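Hey,
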Amino acid sequence: MVFDVGETLIDETRIFARWADRLGVPRLAFFGLMGGMLAQGRELMDVFRVVKPGFDLEAESAAWRAEEPDSLRESFDSDDLYPDVRPALAALRGMGLGVLIAGNQPLSAAPALAAMDLPVDQIHVSDAWGVAKPDPAFFTRVGEVAGVDHNEILYVGDRIDNDVIPAQEAGMRAALIRRGMLGYLHAERSDAKRADVVLNGLDELPGWIADQG
């Protein structure tokens, strides 16, 4: 069992709310722009560039870090975990399954996740690997650290393009979770049927696994 991070384990609402505050935009407007951009198939970073022309993520993050070194800024903590995460992961480990986290995240996300003391065996982030989803090399690394055949891995994420399709092309099974802006949007797409299962929450996962025999 391998899990994505953002909008699979972590509710990113507070992160984007802080970004809206940082950029001086009402939160509702910022969230609305996010939904609009994603519905058009555009990149999330386009929202930042619309709000602040010439936006440079690296420069803005560095300035924010210098101004507020002790705040969460664009990071997260245990308060951002979806409430079904800890019990679902514990149930899966109780079934004798290996449980890993591997997602597109900065280096700082690994210690943030480790500090939550989640019932997982390993935590990996894309910036540490130097490769990110949907690059096939990312899923090759997932298989390497999992230490099992790809057909024994279920990758769980909120996106068809970044999670479901590349995981399946790597020979894995894939679950799509309906939460977060992309999760809900992608679950409505015709290619959502490509997922081995579409979940409304992680609490559904142990039962689905048990039913697979």
